[in-house]
């Protein structure tokens, strides 16, 4: 069975088994999307209105901005995989609650392990704090973090500001565009470490 098929089965399994309260009010689960063999996985926080309608993550204005930034590092959606901490839209796009994140945690971890990327990029504080609960995005953005988590194969992480937050904040937008350029460099560093082993 190929990875695409395995991923589909994983998503269908968790959509049926998931106990997140948001499931009862969202239109659908928004699955991760992209290349199952990607070297980079981007993790956002939760689907918005457009994502809830289409079932695809990052398709609204933040998604368009993300596509522009990917193009700036010569990448496309087909090269990466993108998902969210929470798979269902919170009402009025409010922040996901701790229990909602917790309900989707095993789903996310299984998804990450199937793809096994070299690098996980956090888009915003919610995804960063899922793995690094005490870190501040304002201090940590653009700095590579290396840590071995039990049950997670990936060890390299790069926190960035969320594209939705950066869209309306000029200085944050500049920071995000600058930090985004570090992704190819981070991948190169990881490849060099792999070669050394």
General description of the model:
- By secondary structure, the chain is an alpha/beta fold.
- 47% of the residues lie in helices and 12% in strands.
- The chain has helices at 3-17, 49-54, 61-72, 98-115, 125-131, 137-140, 163-167, 170-180, 182-196; strands at 33-34, 40-44, 81-84, 119-123, 145-146, 156-160.
- It has a six-stranded mixed sheet, with helices on both faces.
List keywords for this structure.
single chain, 197 residues, alpha/beta, 6-stranded mixed sheet, 6 strands
Strand content: 5-15%
Q: What is the number of helices?
A: 9
Low-confidence stretches: none
Reported for the largest beta sheet, the result is: 6 strands, mixed
Please provide the ordered H/E string of secondary-structure elements. Answer: HEEHHEHEHHEEHHH
Terminal Cα span:
30 Å
Q: What's the total count of β strands?
A: 6
Structural class: alpha/beta
In percent, how helical is the residue content? 40-55%
Task: Briefly say what this structure is.
This protein is an alpha/beta fold and 197 residues long.
Task: Please specify the SSE layout and strand pairing.
Elements: H1 3-17, E1 33-34, E2 40-44, H2 49-54, H3 61-72, E3 81-84, H4 98-115, E4 119-123, H5 125-131, H6 137-140, E5 145-146, E6 156-160, H7 163-167, H8 170-180, H9 182-196
Parallel strand pairs: 2-3, 2-4, 4-6
Antiparallel strand pairs: 1-3, 5-6
Helix pairs in contact: 1-4
């Amino acid at each position: 069975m190929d990875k695409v098929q395995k991923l589909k089965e994983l998503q269908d399994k968790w959509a049926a088994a998931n106990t997140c309260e948001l499931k009862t009010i969202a239109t659908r689960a928004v699955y991760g999307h992209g290349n199952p063999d990607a070297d980079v996985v981007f993790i956002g926080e939760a689907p918005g209105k457009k994502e809830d309608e289409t079932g695809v993550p990052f398709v609204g204005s933040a998604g368009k901005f993300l596509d522009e930034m990917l193009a700036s590092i010569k990448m496309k959606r087909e090269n990466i995989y993108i998902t969210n901490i929470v798979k269902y839209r919170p009402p009025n796009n409010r922040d996901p609650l701790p229990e909602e994140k917790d309900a989707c945690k095993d789903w996310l971890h299984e998804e990450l392990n199937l793809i096994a990327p070299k690098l996980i990029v956090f888009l915003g504080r919610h995804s960063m704090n899922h793995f690094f609960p005490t870190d501040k995005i304002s201090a940590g953005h653009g700095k590579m973090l290396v840590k071995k988590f039990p049950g997670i194969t990936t060890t390299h992480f790069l926190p960035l500001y969320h594209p939705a937050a950066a869209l309306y904040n000029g200085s944050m937008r500049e920071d995000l565009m600058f930090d985004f350029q570090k992704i190819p460099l981070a991948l190169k560093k990881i490849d060099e470490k792999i070669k050394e082993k």
